[in-house]
Amino acid sequence: MDYFVEKKSVVRKIWGKSDTVLFIFAGASAEFALNKAVDWLYFTGKLPSDPLGRLFSTVGYARRIVFSSIDEANYAIDTMRKIHTTVEQNRGTTIPDWAYRDVLFMLIHYSISAYELLEEKLSDAEKEEVYNVFYRVGSRMGLKELPPTYIEWLPVRNMHLTENLQKSDYSADLFKQYKKHLGAMRFKVLIEGQKLVVPDRVKELLQFSDFSLLAPVVPVYKISRLMKMDWLLKNILLPSDYKDQINELDVQPGKNDGHLIKTAVAKDLS
């Protein structure tokens, strides 16, 4: 069977561990809130009512593509495009192409920054590998103006960060919802985690300091993983309502999970 991402790819290493994926989730949750097109995420009302659930759905969907066969991954990508087209028809306007690219760019950036925070620095070739996977996702979706290589993508990413982010009433409300659903202590942990992976432009708009209280904790956490004690920290810091989803992040979808792709994509992106 041909897979969308090769079994030995660093992309599978990145998306195959719950802690790395949770930092991807943390960074994306900050940048999502600042995107000028975030009103689209409010259109159905599902994001503000369950922001953590929606972000877990998006992350879970991306993981399914990473661990699927080419045919299954393409089906999932095609279905995602169709669902967004339906939302556009219901609203009577089109989601800007740059907004689709922004989401894709988040997955690229936070895949790299989260892995480098918790594991090790990626080589230029590995970064290119990460970019290529999501480039193929974007190409399948029909996105335009995607740079062909990681190096050519970097200035485009910076341009998007400058032009497409702003702090708005939606931003404030979304962070308010994060705090409501997480609780004050876990919300503080989220903020400190975001500081470790978001780019400077996001820090500037959210008025984040460069120092994170989690910075000295990360080395300790790495040791706890070696001692198989990381589950204890996760149980303390993460909401019990989402523990099943979090535990599933450590389980790579199997080769017989193709039938789950069709139902999961429709549910997660509706």
From TrEMBL:
InterPro entries: MPAB/Lcp_cat_dom (IPR018713). Residues 45-182 form the ER-bound oxygenase mpaB/mpaB'/Rubber oxygenase catalytic domain. GO terms for molecular function: oxidoreductase activity. This is ER-bound oxygenase mpaB/mpaB'/Rubber oxygenase catalytic domain-containing protein. It comes from Flavobacterium limnosediminis JC2902. The lineage of its organism: Bacteria, Pseudomonadati, Bacteroidota, Flavobacteriia, Flavobacteriales.
